[in-house]
């Protein structure tokens, strides 16, 4: 059976929007904790000629930041801050009688210096070495919607097309080739049908399904959570004209159609126009083993404790110790013990995959294990080492499990079984409630009219050279406002004020620019040009945005931008 480990990398645009705690430090922390250690592990596997066919996605908004010279400046400041914390820690620890933690300060210093050397060796551009690994056939890089917009809740199909078209354009620009696969933001999917997600949402008719937009954009596959496949129904090749796909029909259970395996790729096709985009389904058993802090590996007592750190400086010097141990009772971290535990967990995971394969009597099966990249290293410090150890364990004894990229699996085993999926996501409750509820409805009540205003203004502005820079920056601001991160942060209650401010700021900026493009505001165009130039220096993303806007306006068939 095939095993397709898939990582999804995303952060919203934070450069030039402050540093700590939710500005550029957010990006730098992800780079230091996750992206650089992951690159180190992948290069180590390459050097040892260990096959590691990873599928990794980078959202265009993240890739733009990682390729930015301004990120290099911020990262150097971040390294300096971390090393300064190491310099200051010995005196502080001595004063508090914690000299036994000094070896851990040396551990962190060595690690920071090593990763800083790696960062300098790639000239501060994390995109370039990933592209090199892709070109060497070591991994597959996929893309996502431009700013991780929550596609099923966008009011205009043009907005969905813009997010996807720009994702495809930016991927080719940064990684040198077209992306066949796409990560749907939040794994959020909506089928063809009526659209009225909230009482204040604009009235629309029948909306196209997300897979139809993916097919038009040239994508061949995407990923869904397991409950969507369980709730969906296998259908005829051209779909079924009626009924709620989440509600079993009479006879379904007798026909054995209610339970569907997560271990095959399904063809999602509703119409002849969307002849088939493959959906790869997350395997719940293997995913839970890695994802869950309570039931999975990350909660092991030997691993680094995420929540306890020493201030000033933020050094983490303690281990989990136990799930019921409060922060004051945490024991000192033991790096070698943690590394040994990660290797043991990698061997256990290989056995788990073999057990799944042995119990799944299905030719052409696949175990899909998708995770946020930031789980590895940031939330689970030992995660990158565990990931490398998994590939090493499978290379020693695959036990009937073949690690592959998602693209390789689909090339060998094309999706043939059609299915109709219901709406859903991989968020809490499996639906859209993390992004649209009582606390977040106001965000959509700002975003939906903004979409209408933008697409009303776009056709005329595209034909006016003087208006094009203003339209381009209005598009950037609208896209940045659409990032699903803002509603997620508001729903969780963590840093809600930051998310609210960011969304409102981008909406306000986009609206001001669009107001200057109305027919009766010609006298405001010079101001808008100046403001657009100012905003372009703050939010430096998507240099080729106008072709994507034109493609989104031109209809679904114009999205073959390659």
Shape: globular
Outline the biggest β-sheet: 6 strands, parallel
Roughly how much helix do the residues carry, as a percent range? 40-55%
Query: What class, by secondary structure content?
Result: alpha/beta
Mean pLDDT: 91
Task: Provide a count of the helices.
Answer: 18
Order of helices and strands: EHEHHHHEHEEEHEHEEHHEHEHEHHHHHH
Q: Distance between termini?
A: 33 Å
Tell me how many strands there are: 12
CATH superfamily of the domain at 435-559: Families 57/38 glycoside transferase, middle domain
CATH architecture descriptor of the domain at 435-559: Up-down Bundle
Q: Please compute the radius of gyration using only Cα atoms.
A: 24 Å
CATH class of the domain at 435-559: Mainly Alpha
Q: Give the low-confidence spans.
A: 233-257, 556-562
CATH-assigned fold name of the domain at 435-559: immunoglobulin/albumin-binding domain-like
Describe the oligomeric state of these chains in a short phrase. Answer: single chain
List the helices and strands and how they pair.
Blueprint: E1 2-9, H1 24-47, E2 54-58, H2 60-66, H3 69-95, H4 102-121, H5 127-135, E3 139-144, H6 157-175, E4 182-183, E5 193-194, E6 206-207, H7 210-217, E7 221-224, H8 226-231, E8 266-268, E9 277-281, H9 284-291, H10 335-359, E10 366-372, H11 383-396, E11 402-403, H12 406-412, E12 417-419, H13 441-462, H14 468-481, H15 485-492, H16 496-515, H17 525-538, H18 545-553
Parallel strand pairs: 1-2, 1-10, 1-11, 2-3, 3-4, 7-9, 8-12
Antiparallel strand pairs: 5-6, 8-9
Helix pairs in contact: 1-3, 1-4, 1-11, 3-4, 6-7, 6-18, 10-11, 13-14, 13-16, 13-18, 14-16, 14-17, 15-16
């Amino acid at each position: 059976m095939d095993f397709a480990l898939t990582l999804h990398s995303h952060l919203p645009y934070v450069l030039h929007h402050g540093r700590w705690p939710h500005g550029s430090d957010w990006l730098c922390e992800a780079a230091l904790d996750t992206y650089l250690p992951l690159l180190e592990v992948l290069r180590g596997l390459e050097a040892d000629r260990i096959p590691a066919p990873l599928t990794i996605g980078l959202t265009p908004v993240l890739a733009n930041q990682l390729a930015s010279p301004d990120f290099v400046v911020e990262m150097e400041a971040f390294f300096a801050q971390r090393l300064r914390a190491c310099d200051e820690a010995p005196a502080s620890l001595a004063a508090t009688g914690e000299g036994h933690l000094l070896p851990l300060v040396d551990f962190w210093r060595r690690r920071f210096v090593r990763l800083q050397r790696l960062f300098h060796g790639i000239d501060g551009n994390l995109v370039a070495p990933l592209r090199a690994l892709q070109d060497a056939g070591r991994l597959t890089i996929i893309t996502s919607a431009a700013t991780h917009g929550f596609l099923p809740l966008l009011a205009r199909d043009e907005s969905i097309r813009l997010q996807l078209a720009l994702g495809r354009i930016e991927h080719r620009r940064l990684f040198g080739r077209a992306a066949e696969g796409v990560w749907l933001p939040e794994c959020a999917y909506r089928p063809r049908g009526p659209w009225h997600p909230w009482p204040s949402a604009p009235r629309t008719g029948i909306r196209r399904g997300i897979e139809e937009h993916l097919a038009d954009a040239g994508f061949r596959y995407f990923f869904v959570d397991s409950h969507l496949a369980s709730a969906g129904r296998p259908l005829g090749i051209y779909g079924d004209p009626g009924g709620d796909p989440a509600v079993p029909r009479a006879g379904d259970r007798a026909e054995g159609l209610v339970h569907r395996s997560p271990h095959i790729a399904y063809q999602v096709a509703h119409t002849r126009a969307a002849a088939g985009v493959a959906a790869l389904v997350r395997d719940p058993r293997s995913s839970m083993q890695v994802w869950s802090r309570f039931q999975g590996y990350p909660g092991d007592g030997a691993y680094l404790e995420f929540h306890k750190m020493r201030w000033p400086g933020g050094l983490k010097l303690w281990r989990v110790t136990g799930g019921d141990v409060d922060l004051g009772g945490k024991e000192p971290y033991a790096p070698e013990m943690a590394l040994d535990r990660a290797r043991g967990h990698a061997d256990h995971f290989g056995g788990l995959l073999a057990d799944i394969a042995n119990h799944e009597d299905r030719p052409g099966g696949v175990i899909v294990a998708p995770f946020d990249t930031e789980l590895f290293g940031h939330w689970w410090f030992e995660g990158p080492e565990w990931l490398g150890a998994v590939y090493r364990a499978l290379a020693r004894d695959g036990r009937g499990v073949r690690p592959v990229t998602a693209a390789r699996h689909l090339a060998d085993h094309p999706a043939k079984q059609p299915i109709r999926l219901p709406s859903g996501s991989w968020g809490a409750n499996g639906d859209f409630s993390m992004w649209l509820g009582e606390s977040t409805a106001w965000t959509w009540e700002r975003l939906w009219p903004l979409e209408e205003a933008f697409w009303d203004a776009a056709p005329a502005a595209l034909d006016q050279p003087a208006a094009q820079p203003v339209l381009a920056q209005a598009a950037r601001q609208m896209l940045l406002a659409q990032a699903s991160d803002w509603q997620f942060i508001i729903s969780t209650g963590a840093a809600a004020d930051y998310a609210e401010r960011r969304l409102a700021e981008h909406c306000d900026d986009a609206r001001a620019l669009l107001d200057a493009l109305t027919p009766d505001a010609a006298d405001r165009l010079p101001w808008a040009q100046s403001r657009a130039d100012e905003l372009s220096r703050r939010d430096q993303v998507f240099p080729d945005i106008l072709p994507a806007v034109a493609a989104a306006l031109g209809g679904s068939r114009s999205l073959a931008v390659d």
